[in-house]
């Protein structure tokens, strides 16, 4: 891992950009000595997503003492494009517009992304956890939903996950969801035009976790209420803090 930039933000949070091999990422750390870590997932385009990711990360750091990190997805942002993924995205757009079945295309697009991205997230954890100021435990929040499902299943260092509901989850990941047992919170925008609400509910139902909570709010994809940021932070405080922090 190599840090490429560093700046102290006005709320005292330290924001550092880094590269891990060919993978660019950003790390936000509070002033506390040993901070739990939240991996902040997103749909790709780290620079484009930076304002939204930074807002969440800074809230976690300044208000709850958590560190947070985001990395660029394979084939997104400044990383080299993947021809098969580009073709699958184009095919998916065409099929959705035409009202045609999409399951085979979703498998073609999402499964290879999961196979590439999950090992990269795990390598990122390997590099971040030994750093001064980061002490674990670890949470995962955001999307891509299928990546979060796989990470929640295979990465034992992740203690809790807050997933953003999405439609394009291959059927094979539903089977994996049944084996997920860590505490979960799922955020669903009820009127999100980009997802199949019933499929998102079916995925929530499939999770095998004994503790799982669904937060469903009216509104479209960009209409997530601001209070959900703090609701997510309190969820992680319960499961990542030492000792646990309870809602008042």
Q: Would you give an account of this structure?
A:
The protein has 248 residues and is α/β, with parallel strands linked by helices. The chain has one domain (2-79, 115-240): Alpha/Beta hydrolase fold, catalytic domain (Rossmann fold). The protein has seven helices and nine strands; from the N terminus they run E-E-E-E-H-E-H-H-E-H-E-H-E-H-E-H. It has helices at 46-64, 83-98, 103-128, 145-154, 171-177, 197-206, 227-240, and strands at residues 2-8, 14-20, 23-29, 35-40, 67-71, 134-142, 158-164, 184-189, 212-217. A nine-stranded mixed β-sheet has the order 1-2-3-5-4-6-7-8-9, sandwiched between helices. Strand 1 (2-8) and strand 2 (14-20) form a beta hairpin. Helix 1 crosses helix 7 and helix 3 crosses helix 4. The longest helix has 26 residues, at 103-128. It is globular, with a radius of gyration of 17 Å. The protein starts with a strand and ends in an 8-residue tail after the last helix.
List the helices and strands and how they pair.
Blueprint: E1 2-8, E2 14-20, E3 23-29, E4 35-40, H1 46-64, E5 67-71, H2 83-98, H3 103-128, E6 134-142, H4 145-154, E7 158-164, H5 171-177, E8 184-189, H6 197-206, E9 212-217, H7 227-240
Parallel strand pairs: 4-5, 4-6, 6-7, 7-8, 8-9
Antiparallel strand pairs: 1-2, 2-3, 3-5
């Amino acid at each position: 891992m190599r840090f490429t930039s560093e700046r102290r933000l006005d709320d005292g949070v330290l924001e550092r950009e880094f590269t891990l091999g060919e993978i660019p990422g950003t790390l936000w750390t509070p002033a506390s000595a040993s901070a739990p870590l939240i991996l902040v997932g997103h749909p790709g385009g780290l620079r484009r997503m930076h304002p939204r990711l930074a807002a969440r990360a800074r809230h976690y750091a300044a208000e709850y003492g958590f560190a947070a990190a985001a990395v660029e997805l394979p084939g997104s942002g400044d990383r080299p494009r993947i021809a098969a993924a580009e073709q699958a995205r184009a095919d998916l757009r065409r099929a959705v517009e035409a009202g045609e079945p999409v399951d085979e295309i979703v498998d073609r697009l999402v499964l290879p992304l999961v196979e590439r991205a999950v090992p990269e997230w795990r390598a990122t954890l390997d590099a971040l956890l030994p750093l001064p100021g980061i002490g674990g435990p670890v949470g995962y929040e955001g999307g891509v939903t299928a990546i979060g499902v796989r990470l929640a299943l295979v990465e034992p260092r992740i203690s809790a996950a807050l997933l953003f509901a999405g439609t394009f989850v291959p059927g094979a990941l539903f089977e994996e969801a049944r084996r997920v047992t860590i505490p979960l919170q799922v955020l669903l925008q009820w009127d999100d035009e980009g997802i199949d609400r019933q499929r998102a509910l079916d995925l929530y139902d499939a999770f095998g976790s004994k503790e799982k909570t669904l937060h469903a709010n009216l509104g479209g994809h960009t209409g997530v209420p601001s209070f959900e940021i703090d609701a997510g932070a309190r969820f992680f405080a319960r499961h990542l803090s030492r000792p646990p922090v309870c809602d008042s």
